[in-house]
Amino acid sequence: MRHPTLEDVAARAGVSRALVSIVVRGAPGASEATRQRVLSIADELGYRPDSRARLLAGRRSRLLGVTLTLNHPFHADLAEHIYSAAEQRGYEVVLSAVTSNRPPQKAIDTLLDYRCEAAILAGALTREPELTALGERLPVVVLGQRTRSQAVDVVRTADTQGIRLAVDHLAELGHRAIVHVDGGRAPGSAARRSAYRTAMHRRGLAEQARVVPGGEAEEDGAAAARELADRTPPTAVLTYNDRCAVGLLDVFVRAGIAVPDDISVVGYDDSPVARLPHLRLTTVSQDAAQLASLAVQRAIARLEGGAVDAREVVLTPHLAVRGTTAPPR
Amino acid sequence: MRHPTLEDVAARAGVSRALVSIVVRGAPGASEATRQRVLSIADELGYRPDSRARLLAGRRSRLLGVTLTLNHPFHADLAEHIYSAAEQRGYEVVLSAVTSNRPPQKAIDTLLDYRCEAAILAGALTREPELTALGERLPVVVLGQRTRSQAVDVVRTADTQGIRLAVDHLAELGHRAIVHVDGGRAPGSAARRSAYRTAMHRRGLAEQARVVPGGEAEEDGAAAARELADRTPPTAVLTYNDRCAVGLLDVFVRAGIAVPDDISVVGYDDSPVARLPHLRLTTVSQDAAQLASLAVQRAIARLEGGAVDAREVVLTPHLAVRGTTAPPR
DNA sequence: GCGGCGTTCTAGAGCGCTCTAGTTCTCTGG
DNA sequence: CCAGAGAACTAGAGCGCTCTAGAACGCCGC
C-alpha cells in the first residue's frame, strides 16, 4: 500500500541505495547493465522519487515558483509555455494562484515555503518594497510588467511600441479620429495611455487624441462603447485589451454600428478570443511562448551564475491585423 | 542569507528544536510564556517552516492535489473556492495544470510526486482504468464529471435536471421549436444531449427535438448559429455551455436576428461572461463554491476516516434567468 | 519526606533522498 | 608483478522537520 522507496528498490536489486539514486537521476557512475536492471525493477515496483525528500536532500531544488491569475486567458497561455520551457531545462514548476481572496503576498509565501529557487511573477501586482525584499532573497522575474525595483529581472513586451503599431496602422488606413479606451487602474494602463498620446502626436494627430475611461473587463468596454455611440463617434478605437474590445464590439453590433465599416477596433493581447472566426479582432500580439521562455531562461541564468546582460528584456510586439480594421468611409 | 531553521530559532531562544516545533505548529505542550517568546524570536529571524521537511517528517502531509484546466473560466472559480475551503480546514493545496501539451496523467503524476494525501480532479478527463488505479492509491474526488469507476468519489451537478430546467423554462414561455446545440465530444455532452431529448419528450415536444452539432468553444457556437440562420430558424436555442452560447449570440446579432425577440438563447455554466451587463445570458448555474467545498469536504472525510455516505454527490443546479429569453412572437 | 501525577521540556530516531569520501575491482603499462 | 588510473559501487552523514519516549520539575496528599 505504501509508496516504494529507494531502499525497496535497492533491496530488490541487491545494490546500495546510492546506486539506485544514481540510476534514477540518470547521473553518471553506473554501468549500463545495472542501469537497465535497476530501472526495470524500479518500474516494476512502481517506484516514483519522493520530490519532498529529493528537494530536502539536494542542494539544488530545481524548482521554479510561478504566480498567476487564474481567470486571465493570457496567463493560461504563459503558464503553459513556462511549464514546457522549464521542463526542457530540467526544472520543475510549482504554481500558486492569485485570486480575489488570495493576495499576491500569500501566493508568494507559499512558493517560498516550497523552497523554490527562483520566482516568476505573472499574476502579482506586488509593490516595489516587497518586490525588492523578495528579489534580495532569490532570483525574481517579473513577467509583463514594469517595475522600478532594481532587485528583480523584468521580461515584458514594449507597450509603447505596441500602441504605436496600432495607431500607425489606423493612421495609415486614413483614420484621424482615433480614440483610446484605457484600462482604468489596471496594470500597465497608465503606460499605454501615455504611449497612445505620444503615438498620436508623432502622427500629427495630437489634436484628435481622446481617452475614454475603460477597464480590463468586457463590461468596461461596453460602457465605453455606449458613451462613444452617444456622442459623435470616432472612426477608430484602440482599447486597453482584448476583453475590453470584445465588450465594445458587442455594443456596437447591437447598436447597428458596423465594424469595421463604420468604425475600426484594435485590441491588445491577442488572446484566444481575438482569433475566433466570428470576431477576427485586429490586436497587438504579445508572444507568450517567447515571453515565457525568456523568463525561465533568465531565472535559470541567475541561478546557475550565467551572465545576465540586462535587468530588463523588452520584446517587440507585432500587430495581428484581422477583420476589425478598415479605411474609414 | 540562508533560510533560518528550527535549529536557529531554538538556539536563539535557548530551547530544544522539538519545543520550537511544538510552538510553531500550535501543538499543545508548551507554556504560554515560552510560546510567546519563541514565536517572537521566530518572527524576528523571519523563520518559515520548510514545507518539504515538514511533509517528509510528518505522517500526514495535509496536502490536497488539484488538477485543472487553466483556460476554463469555471475552473478558475472552482480553484479559488477550493483554496479557501481547504485552508479553512487546515489543508494546503497544490495545483497542477492540464494543458494541451501536459496531459492529465502527467498532471496527476506530479501531484503524486508531491505526496499529496488526496486528489481533486477538475481538469482531467481520465479514463476509467487509470481513475480506478488512482482511486486505489489515495482518495480521489472527481469534480463535475460522471464516471463509472467505483474507486473514486464524484461531486457534480445534475446535468439532466439543469437541462430540464432550461427546457421547462423555454416551454413555459411558449416555445416549441427548441433546438439543442450540443458539445460534440466534450465531456458531459452526451449526457446533456440525452437529457435534452428526455426533457423535450416530457413536454410533449419529442417531435420538435433537434440537435445541432456544436462544441465547447465560441467558434463552435458560431458555426451552429450560421447553420441555424440558413434553414428555418427555431424560436429558442439551448447550448452546451456559455462559450458556445456567446458564439451563437454574436452571429445572430450580426445577422440581424434579435435576441430574445426573434430567438431565445440559454447557456450552461453561469460563467462570468454570462453575467456581463451587455450579454445577460440566461444560463444554467452550477454553484462553484458549493461544488468546491463539497469536494474538499469529501476528500478530507475520506482521509480522516469520517463516514462518507454516498460515493456520488449530485447538486441541484438552478436557472439564472437573465435577458436572452422571452416568449416567442 | 516520599510516591504519584500533570505539565513542560528534551534527546534522538527517522522520513526518503543526495552527496562526499571512500572501497573494491578491473585494466592497463612498465 | 606491481603501481596507478579509472570505472563501478557503498557507507554514512545530513537536509529540516515531526514524533515517541522519557527526563525534569513542581505540587499534591498522606
Please tell me about this protein's structure.
- With 329 residues, chain A is α/β, with parallel strands linked by helices.
- Chain A has helices at 6-13, 17-25, 32-45, 51-57, 73-88, 104-113, 128-137, 159-173, 189-202, 218-230, 242-254, 288-303; strands at residues 63-69, 92-98, 118-121, 140-143, 153-157, 178-181, 210-212, 236-239, 264-269, 282-285, 312-315, 318-320.
- Chain A has a six-stranded parallel sheet, with helices on both faces.
- In chain A, α9 links the parallel β6 (178-181) and β7 (210-212).
- In chain A, α1 packs across α2, α1 (6-13) packs across α3 and α10 (218-230) packs across α11.
- In chain A, 50% of the residues are buried.
- Chain A binds a DNA duplex (30 and 30 nucleotides) through residues 3, 5-7, 15-19, 21-22, 25, 27, 29-31, 34, 49-50, 52-59.
Summarize the structure.
The structure is a homodimer of 329-residue chains. Helices cover 44% and strands 17% of the residues of chain A.
